[in-house]
């Protein structure tokens, strides 16, 4: 720490003759602009704190402010996520939490759209959802003639498609019943929060296998599987 405040350089030369004044101004310099190698608090001045204020709202840079305090960083990220009306998953590390916060704000520009919902589900679950809206396919014998109550490519519909309804298909690796229930709960919570209020949805969850399953994976170009599914 210097013996004399640099603030003396901004005063008339006559004030430099008094060594007490140089020591006295050190306290103000430490509080206002900071001192190199300061041993006492505050470690940085108000000007430095204000200059770094924007980093508190930049998820990609916030870790530079908490380099020695992982617990405080996690707590601050949780607080920051409250500004986005979403919660961070407890099993994410700080890097995943930072990436989520960095991506979520731009996604709000597309809130309520299929693209926004698909991206959110991918971020939260690591799965690649297939989101389909009910097709509007009139009853045509020989063209659309399969009578069914569920959404499919060849379902016959009398009076037009089911309004305000969509289906989200998610494929998971074989896992425990508890993990399946946990992922379903997460997906439903996200969809309920992000979907337009007047819409309804179906949520079939398929278990990933290495074979084609007629009736489960039989829509060519959508969910028919020949071979194994690449890792998301």
List the helices and strands and how they pair.
Layout: H1 19-32, H2 46-51, H3 70-81, H4 94-107, H5 114-125, E1 130-133, E2 146-147, E3 155-156, E4 165-172, H6 177-194, E5 200-202, E6 205-207
Parallel strand pairs: 2-3, 4-5, 4-6
Antiparallel strand pairs: 1-4
Helix pairs in contact: 3-4, 5-6
Pfam families: Tail_P2_I
Protein name: Phage tail protein I
Organism: Phormidesmis priestleyi ULC007
Low-confidence stretches: none
Largest sheet: 4 strands, mixed
Q: Nearest-angstrom radius of gyration? A: 29 Å
Number of domains: 3
Mean pLDDT: 76
Give a brief outline of the structure:
This is Phage tail protein I. By secondary structure, this protein is of the alpha/beta class.
Give a structural overview:
The chain is an alpha/beta fold. It folds into three domains: 1-51, no CATH class; 56-110; 112-232, no CATH class. The protein is built from six helices and six strands. The chain has helices spanning 19-32, 46-51, 70-81, 94-107, 114-125, 177-194; strands spanning 130-133, 146-147, 155-156, 165-172, 200-202, 205-207. Strands 1, 4, 5 and 6 form a four-stranded mixed sheet that branches. The chain has a two-stranded parallel ribbon with strand order 2-3. β4 (165-172), α6 and β5 (200-202) form a beta-alpha-beta unit. α5 runs antiparallel to α6. It is elongated and about 90 Å long. It starts with 18 loop residues before the first helix and ends in a 25-residue tail after the last strand.
